[in-house]
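PROTEIN DESIGN WORKSHEET
SECTION A - STRUCTURE
LENGTH: 272
TOKENS:
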């Protein structure tokens, strides 16, 4: 199987599973994104050469603490009493373990741990919260589907336009292949799709709100891509891993989402 068909097949499987999780079940959706977060954490830890289990522990507790509220059957008091306490203790143990481990570069090690949390865990936690902003997963799950469609459109057309018409480099020091023409092309097609989504999707979002989300995706999605490219350049690797045949790693597929999602969540908090 040549690389094109391998890339196409793995891409179809990846997108199908993602869309199925969004439309089928909120529990499946939460579990899938928790697993994806763990894969991305693994790849990022390897990239920055961090050997520690604490990003997994803190990440798990933050994810549970942030998203378990979407599951109505679990009492909120239990969440705040037990998960909150566990999160505090885990962070405390993280500091204590560095102290007794006698590591020479304490600040650097702690910095890598909390960079992993900020860069991977927080965005994934907020991604999963987006469908629950109106406390009704079945009603607003098309919002998160629309977000992913916008991101995929932006990435795809930025690549196609940049490859065929790109002449001016966007940020050659970090990513030599990205062009200004590609950025503009991706943004235009993302705006076009946002207009279509506003007409076709049954959500509480208006046309203007979909257009604003498209703008957030276009700008911050590209920034997320460039930031991951910066980390990969520092690490001297082409892809974050080879877990997805023809596509690299999970972090390579979610770099745009990771940076755009928090800003989309903040925006939706104001308009919903």
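SECTION B - SEQUENCE
RESIDUE ASSIGNMENT:
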């Amino acid at each position: 199987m040549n690389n094109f068909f391998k890339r196409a097949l793995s891409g179809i499987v990846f997108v199908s599973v993602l869309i199925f999780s969004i439309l089928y079940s909120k529990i499946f959706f939460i579990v899938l994104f928790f697993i994806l977060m763990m894969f991305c954490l693994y790849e990022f830890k390897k990239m920055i050469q961090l050997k520690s289990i604490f990003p997994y522990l803190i990440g798990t507790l933050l994810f549970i603490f942030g998203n378990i509220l979407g599951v109505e059957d679990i009492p909120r008091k239990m969440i705040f009493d037990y998960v909150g306490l566990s999160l505090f203790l885990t962070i405390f143990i993280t500091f204590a373990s560095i102290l007794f481990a006698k590591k020479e570069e304490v600040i650097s090690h702690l910095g890598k741990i909390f960079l992993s949390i900020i860069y991977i865990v927080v965005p994934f936690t907020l991604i999963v919260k987006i469908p629950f902003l109106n406390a009704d997963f079945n009603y607003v799950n098309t919002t998160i589907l629309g977000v992913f469609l916008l991101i995929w459109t932006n990435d795809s057309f930025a690549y196609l336009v940049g490859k065929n018409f790109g002449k001016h480099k966007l940020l050659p020091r970090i990513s030599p292949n990205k062009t200004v023409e590609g950025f503009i092309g991706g943004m235009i097609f993302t705006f076009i799709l946002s207009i279509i989504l506003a007409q076709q999707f049954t959500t509480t979002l208006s046309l203007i709100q979909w257009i604003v989300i498209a703008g957030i995706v276009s700008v911050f999605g590209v920034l997320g891509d460039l930031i991951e490219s910066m980390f990969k350049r520092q690490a001297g690797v082409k892809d974050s891993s080879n877990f997805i045949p023809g596509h690299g790693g999970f972090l390579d597929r979610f770099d745009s989402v990771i940076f755009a999602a928090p800003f989309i969540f903040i925006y939706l908090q104001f308009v919903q």
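SECTION C - NOTES
The chain has nine helices and two strands.
Strands lie at 169-171, 175-179.
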